[in-house]
Amino acid sequence: MQALNPQQQTEIEAAAFRRLLQHLDDNKDVQNIDLMILADFCRNCLAKWMMAAAKEQGVEMDYDEARERVYGMPYSEWKELYQEPATPEQLAAFEAREATRKARGEA
Predict the structure, then answer these.
(1) Residue-wise DSSP of 14-69
(2) What is the pTM of this model?
(3) String of b and e for 90-107 (b: at least 16 CB within 10 Å)?
(4) pLDDT tens per residue across span 78-101
(5) Which of 15, 61, 75, 87 sits CB 3.0–4.6 Å from 54 for a disulfide?
């Protein structure tokens, strides 16, 4: 594996993150609950991680601003346009996922 200097690593990771955000934006039909069931993270998690990273860099960023950066628009607008109500099947799958996590001692 080629060694990367810190700048290269940061730029590559940032580009990959931007690509992830673009992919999520291109696939708005994938609901946050689906992401939580399958991967244990969602767009809101990404916003929280972004907010925490900003804080580590001494940059003030609130949750609404972070979500707008992840969603590409205010969250309330995205929710109105794209978020579907969770189905009983999705809710059951999410609850089963959470129960499994708790049984393993994850929280």
Answers:
(1) HHHHHHHHHHHHHTTTS-HHHHHHHHS--HHHHHHHHHHHHHHTT----HHHHHHH
(2) 0.89
(3) beebeeeeeeeeeeeeee
(4) 999 999 999 999 999 999 999 999
(5) 61
Mean per-residue pLDDT, 22-43:
96
Burial class of residue 46 (count of CB atoms within 10 Å of its CB; 0-12, 13-18, 19+):
buried
Q: What dihedral do alpha carbons 68, 72, 51, 36 form, nearest 10°?
A: 100
For residue 49, count other CB atoms closer than 10 A to its CB.
Answer: 14
70: burial class by Cβ within 10 Å (0-12, 13-18, 19+)? buried
61: amino acid identity, one letter: M
Calculate the CA dihedral of residues 49, 78, 20, 61 and round it to 10 degrees.
-30
